[in-house]
Amino acid sequence: MCREIHKNNTKIKQKLKLKILLTGATGYIGKRLLPILLKEGHEVICCIRDKKRFNAENYSSPRLQVIEINFLDSANDIQFPDGIDAAYYLIHSMSSGERSFEELEKRSAEAFRDAAGKAKIKQVIYLSGIINEETLSKHLISRKNVENILTEGNYSLTTLRAGIIVGSGSASFEIIRDLVEKLPLMVTPRWLNTRTQPIAIRNVLEYLSGVLLRNETYGKSFDIGGPDILTYKEMLLRFAKIRGLKRFIIVVPVMTPRLSSYWLYFVTAVSYSLAVNLVNSMKVEIVCRKNSLIDMLGVKLITYDDSIRLAFDKIEQNQVISSWNDALTTNILDSGITKHLEVPQNGCFKDTRKIKVTSSGRTLDKIWAIGGNTGWYYANWLWILRGFADKLFGGVGLRRGRRDPIDIQAGETLDFWRVLLADKNNSRLLLYAEMKLPGEAWLEFKLTDSQLEQTATFRPLGLLGRLYWYSVYPFHGLIFQGMVNKLAE
Prior knowledge:
Layout: H1 2-16, E1 19-23, H2 28-39, E2 43-48, E3 64-68, E4 86-89, H3 101-118, E5 123-129, H4 138-151, E6 156-162, E7 165-166, H5 171-182, E8 185-189, E9 195-196, E10 199-200, H6 201-210, E11 220-224, E12 230-231, H7 232-242, E13 248-252, H8 257-267, H9 272-282, H10 293-297, H11 304-316, H12 338-341, E14 349-356, H13 360-368, H14 380-392, E15 413-414, E16 417-423, E17 428-433, E18 439-448, E19 451-460, H15 462-488
Parallel strand pairs: 1-2, 1-4, 2-3, 4-5, 5-6, 6-11, 7-10, 8-13
Antiparallel strand pairs: 9-12, 14-19, 15-16, 16-17, 17-18, 18-19
């Protein structure tokens, strides 16, 4: 009966053809929610901080509109289109590096609240975190503060509070995967005994689309979780069992939060600032309070084990829609991708290598598959060593990999690079370095008339930057020449 109610509600929404504002459209959740909203027949307006990071051609829908808005701007400078029925607020800044993410989230929420109020939006849907404990981490306190700010708006707010979200490309899934697949024996901090209630990404999306313009949800908050309540230790061991791996976990009480953060930082792909926030949050029990939402929407909850299996099905089929890594995890590109698309010529060191290729199509496919599990084609151990050195100095390292083994788009991560431009029609790939450097670096591949041109550009910062270039220059002859030769084969 509940399933039928949910289907009927979906049909009603399709007939209504709502006009929906979607923030965080380039984030992990937003990228997955967007196609669902379009499929339901709604008109969707995506708020993007940088249009270069969003490829509207992927959706091929006349009902999709993209507008460029930075919610860190003054609320007076932000204006939404007319006639919006509902909006999703999916913005968070926990992975921000040097600046205070609490202040960023506060400013963004206030700007959105005021703009949404002026636009006379009926409902705002906010995805938050479960906040049932009296003692909360900075991350969860910030989420609660954002909820309080959004509650003040001239609209009806519906808040969905989730804990650990499990799905292909999700932060939780990838962190657990890193730990289980790399460490046969884990000596872990005591927060691994903390209980949590993981939820499958499919269920999260069902809830997000299900509460849309539901009067019963206005002005209310709902905890959403899966059917299993597990400790983090149990989650790791069950993941290992599904993967056919035998793993041993020893929990020790003496590991400090700082040591725990370093442990998570060096073993997984998270940045140190994100590791600190995660460790502080993992010390807090995250278990749902009961509510009527599951019956109201007819959601069939997916078990933790099944959510892991579903995630690997998507990975094996190369159907990972979004990855948490693709969110901007450094402050390097805060000014936007566009500013860095024009590779500078003056005051730069360049290493340019040109070579004739035997098959343009094959070379282009190799370029589009570079990095991640494929590697860098030549002296890959040196790239791994550079990634390890980057981790030692607090950088992102190589572990971020890439979302898809053969497809790549602007805005995505590629090991310790950010993709600025991925134009396969014009045979050009442009990468921007996010590793720790005394300067800025670009790596560009262009294929014209059966000739491959590979250019590494470095704009040094002061004397240290120049010393860095000359110290690594001997390796460039080995790495870059070897790489261009392999690409041309």
